[in-house]
């Protein structure tokens, strides 16, 4: 199965467009993990197990592991998800981007070392910097288009030939880079108008990874109505902190499951 | 000492603008490392020790370590350089870029976990994505401007208000982002005309990290004459493969030293 077909299958099987972000921050962990030497793995595993039934994908964010020197926990977490929830693809959120010969090593990091089904990538260096990811036809490449952060427009809104840079990125990806049909785009939930514009450019077949609901303030109704495709899918609406840290008590897993299910329900009302 | 002051001091002390790139690829290591379980560290350490006297900086490229699961070797390598060659700053080449809250974790990765003196960063997400790096006033932030790879122009050459994107990046960095005086720019050796344009935009005080001489084909004379500042410095001319893999024999360290010294001499002829 390719990432794209796994994702389509999962949208239907789980009736969910929720992507559960796994961003471990030990200071926010429930008290019971205070003496767990393997807390990063244990906490993320518990969240994954509790939320899998509501998830179309998992998205571990690698900086959170790297800052802690927890690469081993990340590898074991992804292996655990593959073994325990085999229908749920894993996107390694690392936003890599480098010259082609180096990008090959980043592709090896994401796809071979961590066995991720997809990886996020930065387009600033151009097509040859993304090619080693694109060449792995069974894996997904989720390319930054219009990001969710306040400063997104600093570069992404600069206007070339009457259209902002992020629209040029969307067009390049859809028309030129997506020859293996394995590209997705990152478009932030905080920019509903831009979600609509990008969907109009790329059509129904390019999935969007949509961060920015929850802690960053994106509105679910606006996201879904503006960004869904004709089938009422096409989205991985990502939530991290609002799910992971829904409770600091012993009900953390249940609270995370509830938060994921509520987001699923909220999304499904507008599909 | 800040990164910027360390670098200036080192340009003078070593009379060198050579940045030695540390990109370990075990398949290219000399035969003597075949049975060394710690080959990634041992090889890079030997290269660093052999080339330090000719180097204004070292630049380990993290993808090469990450693909091998060799984060521990990277940490020990940087610690070794700091201990053994304290005047030579270390740039962690990781080209990170993410929303602010995540970028804080990447800053912790580069500056706290690995104790790097500087880090490379991607500007596509805008200022707030770089801010956690900029805020570390004692460390350097080396921002991608015009990269050395063939596809660099795909996005970087798109024209906004009569000027290509990479020039807008150069201007933003020099005029807006560099409030702590800790910014440098990546401008590839493969684009001599662009080196000259960017130097004209940013003036003498923003150092350039210039990859692309050697294996990528950049011309040293064109780089130095177009990109040096008024003091005949301002450059970190990076070479990786041509130094690291100068010999596969037992003379690998001596060959690396010779390659670094030759690049130093070549550069100094045109300063």
TrEMBL record, chains A, B:
Domain Orotidine 5'-phosphate decarboxylase: 17-256
Catalytic activity: orotidine 5'-phosphate + H(+) = UMP + CO2
GO BP terms in the entry: 'de novo' pyrimidine nucleobase biosynthetic process; 'de novo' UMP biosynthetic process
Active-site residues from the entry: 95 (proton donor)
Key word DNA damage present: no
Pathway assignment: Pyrimidine metabolism; UMP biosynthesis via de novo pathway; UMP from orotate: step 2/2
Record key words, sorted: Decarboxylase, Lyase, Pyrimidine biosynthesis
Catalytic EC class: lyase
UniProt similarity note: Belongs to the OMP decarboxylase family. Type 2 subfamily.
PANTHER family the record matches: OROTIDINE 5'-PHOSPHATE DECARBOXYLASE
Listed name of the protein: Orotidine 5'-phosphate decarboxylase
Organism of derivation: Lysobacter soli
């Amino acid at each position: 199965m390719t990432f794209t077909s796994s994702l389509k299958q999962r949208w239907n099987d789980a009736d969910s467009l929720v992507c559960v972000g796994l961003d471990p921050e030990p200071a926010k962990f429930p008290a019971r993990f205070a003496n767990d030497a393997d807390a990063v793995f244990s906490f993320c595993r518990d969240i994954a197990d509790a939320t899998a039934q509501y998830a179309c994908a998992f998205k571990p964010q690698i900086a959170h592991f790297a800052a802690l020197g927890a690469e081993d926990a990340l590898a074991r977490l992804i292996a655990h998800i593959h073994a325990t929830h085999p229908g749920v693809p894993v996107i390694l959120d690392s936003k890599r981007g480098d010259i082609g010969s180096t990008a090959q090593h980043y592709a090896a990091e994401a796809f071979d070392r961590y066995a991720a089904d997809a990886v996020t990538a930065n387009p600033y260096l151009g097509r040859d910097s993304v090619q080693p990811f694109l060449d792995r036809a069974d894996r997904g490449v989720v390319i930054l288009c219009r990001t969710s952060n306040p400063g997104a427009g600093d570069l992404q809104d600069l206007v070339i030939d009457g259209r902002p840079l992020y629209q040029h990125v969307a067009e390049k990806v859809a028309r030129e880079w997506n020859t293996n049909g394995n590209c997705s785009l990152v478009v932030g939930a905080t920019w509903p108008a831009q979600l609509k514009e990008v969907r109009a450019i790329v059509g129904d077949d390019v999935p969007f990874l949509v961060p920015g609901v929850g802690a960053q303030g994106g509105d679910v109704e606006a996201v879904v109505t503006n960004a869904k495709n004709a089938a009422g899918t096409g989205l991985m609406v990502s939530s991290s902190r609002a799910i992971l840290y829904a409770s600091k008590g012993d009900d953390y897993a249940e609270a995370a499951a509830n938060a994921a299910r509520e987001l699923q329900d909220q999304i499904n009302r507008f599909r």
